[in-house]
Write a structure and sequence with these properties.
The protein is built from 17 helices and 30 strands. It is an alpha/beta fold and about 625 residues long. The protein has 4 domains: about 280 residues, Rossmann fold, CATH 3.40.50.12780; about 160 residues, Rossmann fold (3-Layer(aba) Sandwich); about 90 residues, GMP Synthetase, Chain A, domain 3, CATH 3.30.300; about 60 residues, 2-Layer Sandwich (GMP Synthetase, Chain A, domain 3). It has a 9-stranded mixed β-sheet with strand order 2-1-11-10-12-13-14-15-16, with helices on both faces. Strand 5, helix 6 and strand 6 form a beta-alpha-beta unit. Helix 9 packs across helix 10. The longest helix has 19 residues. The N and C termini lie far apart (about 55 Å).
Length: about 625
C-alpha cells in the first residue's frame, strides 16, 4: 500500500516512523531484482517495440525472464574481466538488451551509460575519463550512425578491450527484416581499432542465467557512472552508489507504483530519469515498464500513436519532459486513456500554460518534480493527491533535506522563508565528498560537508514548497538536455574576427531554452552574423549546441573585472523573443524591460497600455517558463 505523500505533514510522518538507515532495503541490485522476480515472476516487466504502430510487433519480458537475462549479462561481463571496480560503458538506443546491460553491468562492475547523440570525440572523452574496459553498442543499422561513432571513439580509448554489438534485426518483422540485411551500412572502423568485437547475444547465450558465477558481495558500492554533459572534452562524471538507487526505487514503490501498474516511459536509457527513477522504481515495485522505439519520444510516429499506445498497454502512469508534453498537445487525444492515473514531468521547468492545457485536454493530472544527476536524481515533486502549486517543484521527498544557502564572508548562511539562494541537498542519493569521479571537481561542492551545492537558485515558501528561480551556473537546458555554453563560446572565439563571445539560453515555448550567442568583434574586424553562424555550424561538434540566433554587439556587457555579464544578455533575449512572438500573434503589447526579481528571477515587464489584450498575452507568454507582469503605469 502506498504511503501518504499528500503534503508536508504527511511527508514528516513518514520520516517519523523510523530513521532511513533502519528501513529494510536490499543492499545490492541483484538482491533487489531477485526478490521482485521471485515475488512477481510471471508478471510483465519490460515491453518494447522497435516501431511505434499500435498493432506492431511487441516483445514483453516477465520478471523471471528479466532476471535470467540480466544474470547472464552479469556473468558474461565478469567472464570478460569486469570486476566490481571495472567499467562497462554502453552507447545504445532503447531495447531489451539495454536493460540487460544496465543491470548486468551494475551487478558485475560499474556501468556507464553514454548519450548516443554525442559525437565520436565526446564519446571517446567519456570512455577515457571512466577507464571503460568494455563497450556495448549497436551493430551497424540503417538510419543510425551509433556503431560508426563508437568504432571511431574506441580508437581513442585505449582501456577498452571488448566491444559487444547488439543487432536490432530480431525485433523487426517482414518485409523490413528481409530488407535490412541488404541495406545494412558498412562499419570499417570496427575492424581497425584495437578492441575485440563480439556479438552480444551470442556471447550472452554462453553463460548461465540461473545463478551468478561470482559472489554478490553484500556491501554498498559505486555501481554506475553518469556523465552530466559531454559537450566539452572534459565531461563531469557523477558516481552513483547502489544505496542511492535503492532510495529512488523505494520512493517510487512506496509513493506511486505497485506490480499492477503499467508505466509508459519513452525516455532514453542513458538518462537518470529513465534509469534511476523509473527503472529502479520498477525493480522495487514490480511495475511494468513500456519503452516504445529505440529513440523513445524521438522515434518515428511515437507522438502520433502515443495515446493509442497508452490504450494498448492500459497505461497507468505517463513519464515525460516538457518538450514531449508540448508535442503531445499538438495531437488529439484519440484513444481510451481512462486507465491513466497521472503524468510526471521532469528534467526542465514546465510552463504554466502547458500544465493547464495538458490537464484540460487529456483529463490527466500532471505532477512536476525536480532532480539532478549529482544526487542520483530525485529531490522533490508536487504532492500526490495534495495541493499542487503550479510553477513550483513541490515538497521534498522523505529523507531529503534541502537548505537554501548564501555564501557570506563568515561562511554559508541559511536563507529565510521565500529568500532566494542556492539550493543545497542532503539525501540518501548524495555521495558526500565523492560526487564526481575526479577529486578536484568535488572541491567546494558541499556546504557543511554534506549539503550538495546544485548551482540552482531557488526559495522555499511558508508551506514548504520549493521554487526554482534561476541557475547559478550557466548551463543551457534544451528540452532537458544540458549544453555547456563554453562549447559554443570556445568555437566562436576561435574565429579571427571575434574578440569575445557569450552564449546563453534564449526562451523557447517548446524546448524551454535554445542556445543563442552574442559576440564582440576585434577592433576594425569585419564579418557578418551569417558568416559567424556558418562558422558555428561548421565547427560546433554537437548539433544541439549550434546557436539558433547570433548577434554582433558593439561591446558585450561586462562586470567590473571584465567578465561577460550574462544577466544582461538574458534580458535582451527575453525581450527579443517575447516581442517577436507578440508581434507575430498580431498583439500590440510589448516588453519594454526585464527586471531581476529576487523571488521570481528575470521577469518581463509589459506595456500596461495593452491590458485589454491580457487574456491573449497570458496564453501566449504562459507557454514560457519565465514570468511576466504589467509594468507600473
Amino acid at each position: 500500500m502506498n504511503l501518504d505523500f499528500s503534503g508536508s505533514k504527511q511527508r514528516d510522518a513518514i520520516e517519523a516512523e523510523m530513521p532511513w538507515d533502519e528501513r529494510s532495503l536490499s543492499v545490492t541490485i541483484y538482491e533487489r531484482l531477485a526478490k521482485t522476480a521471485h515475488e512477481f515472476s510471471e508478471r510483465p516487466a519490460f515491453s518494447y517495440q522497435i516501431t511505434s504502430g499500435v498493432k506492431d510487433k511487441s516483445v514483453t519480458l516477465n520478471w523471471a525472464d528479466t532476471l535470467m537475462q540480466v544474470t547472464r549479462a552479469a556473468n558474461m561481463f565478469r567472464a570478460h574481466g569486469i570486476s566490481e571496480n571495472d567499467v562497462v560503458a554502453y552507447v545504445l538506443p532503447n531495447c531489451h538488451e539495454t536493460v540487460f546491460t544496465l543491470l548486468g553491468g551494475m551487478i558485475s562492475g560499474i556501468v556507464n551509460p553514454i548519450n548516443p547523440l554525442l559525437e565520436a570525440k565526446q564519446i571517446a572523452g567519456i570512455l577515457r575519463e571512466t577507464g571503460a574496459k568494455a563497450v556495448v553498442t549497436l551493430r551497424a543499422f540503417p538510419k543510425s550512425d551509433i556503431a560508426q561513432k563508437v568504432a571511431e571513439a574506441v580508437k581513442e580509448a585505449p582501456d577498452v578491450q571488448n566491444v559487444f554489438e547488439i543487432d536490432l534485426l530480431p525485433y523487426l518483422t517482414p518485409p523490413k527484416s528481409w530488407i535490412v540485411p541488404l541495406i545494412r551500412p558498412k562499419n570499417p572502423a570496427s575492424q581497425s581499432h584495437h578492441a575485440v568485437v563480439k556479438n552480444f547475444n551470442q556471447e550472452l547465450a554462453k553463460h548461465p542465467g540461473d545463478a551468478l558465477t561470482f559472489e554478490d558481495i553484500q556491501k554498498d558500492r559505486v555501481t554506475a557512472y553518469f556523465h552530466t554533459g559531454g559537450t566539452t572534452g572534459t565531461p563531469k562524471v557523477a558516481q552513483h552508489r547502489a544505496s542511492g538507487m535503492m532510495y529512488n526505487g523505494w520512493l517510487g514503490a512506496n509513493l506511486l507504483f505497485d506490480e499492477h501498474d503499467n508505466v509508459m516511459c519513452p525516455l532514453p536509457m542513458f538518462h537518470v530519469f529513465a534509469c534511476q527513477v523509473i527503472m529502479m522504481s520498477q525493480l522495487a515495485s514490480g511495475a511494468h515498464g513500456v519503452y516504445p522505439t529505440p529513440a523513445g519520444y524521438r522515434g518515428e510516429g511515437v507522438f502520433d500513436n502515443f495515446w493509442k499506445l497508452c490504450e494498448r498497454y492500459k497505461i497507468s502512469f505517463v513519464i515525460g519532459v516538457p518538450t514531449a508534453f508540448s508535442a503531445l498537445m499538438q495531437r488529439p487525444v484519440d484513444a481510451d486513456i481512462s486507465s491513466v492515473k497521472m503524468a510526471f514531468s521532469g528534467s526542465s521547468p514546465l510552463p504554466v500554460e502547458l500544465y493547464k492545457k495538458f490537464e484540460q485536454t487529456s483529463g490527466v493530472e500532471i505532477v512536476e518534480g525536480y532532480g539532478l544527476t549529482e544526487a542520483t536524481c530525485l529531490v522533490s515533486c508536487n504532492p500526490i493527491g495534495g495541493e499542487k502549486k503550479i510553477g513550483s517543484v513541490g515538497i521534498m521527498f522523505p529523507y531529503t533535506d534541502v537548505k537554501i544557502l548564501l555564501d557570506t564572508a563568515e561562511g554559508p548562511k541559511e536563507c529565510g522563508m521565500d529568500e532566494v539562494g542556492e539550493i543545497c541537498i542532503n539525501s540518501p542519493g548524495v555521495y558526500e565528498g565523492a560526487t564526481y569521479t575526479e577529486e578536484e571537481k568535488n572541491k567546494d561542492l558541499y556546504h557543511f560537508d554534506c549539503y550538495l551545492r546544485t548551482g540552482d537558485l531557488g526559495r522555499i515558501d511558508p508551506d514548504g514548497y520549493l521554487w526554482i528561480t534561476g541557475r547559478a551556473k550557466d548551463l543551457i537546458i534544451r528540452g532537458g538536455h544540458n549544453i555547456d555554453p563554453a562549447a559554443i563560446e570556445e568555437v566562436l572565439a576561435g574565429h579571427e574576427a571575434v574578440a569575445m563571445a557569450g552564449a546563453i539560453g534564449q526562451p523557447c515555448a517548446h524546448s524551454g531554452e535554445l542556445p543563442c550567442a552574442y559576440v564582440e568583434l576585434v577592433k576594425d574586424a569585419e564579418v557578418s552574423e551569417e558568416e559567424l553562424m556558418q562558422y558555428a555550424r561548421d565547427h560546433i561538434s554537437e548539433r544541439a549546441a549550434i546557436p539558433k540566433y547570433l548577434e554582433i554587439m558593439t561591446e558585450l556587457p561586462k562586470t567590473a573585472v571584465g567578465k561577460i555579464f550574462k544577466p544582461d544578455l538574458r534580458k535582451s533575449a527575453i525581450m527579443r523573443v517575447y516581442n517577436r512572438e507578440l508581434e507575430q500573434a498580431g498583439l500590440n503589447g510589448r516588453v519594454f524591460g526585464v527586471v531581476d526579481d529576487k523571488r521570481r528571477g528575470l521577469v518581463a515587464q509589459i506595456d500596461p497600455s495593452a491590458k485589454d489584450e491580457e487574456e491573449n498575452i497570458r496564453i501566449l507568454l504562459g507557454k514560457h517558463t519565465r514570468p511576466w507582469e504589467w509594468a507600473e503605469e
